[in-house]
Design brief:
mainly alpha
Amino acid sequence: MGAAALPVLIFTGFWGVVGIVLPFIIPKGPDRGVQQLVLMMTAATCYLFWLCCYMAQMNPLVGPKLNQHTILIMAREWGNLIQ
């Protein structure tokens, strides 16, 4: 199972707009630089957090813990019982 391209493109575009485009349309004022920095840092950290969570689902490190009885029942029901 691999990552789907559409969600990656959509979220990359969204956070790209927030971090690259929006800082240029902040109105002039005494704290314009701070507001630009806040937008860029928010976009970068939120995008990285989303990307790490999304990619962690591609190859999970933790799986379900099943006892042997449950595994045998699943194998029998799904038709791949090992003899």
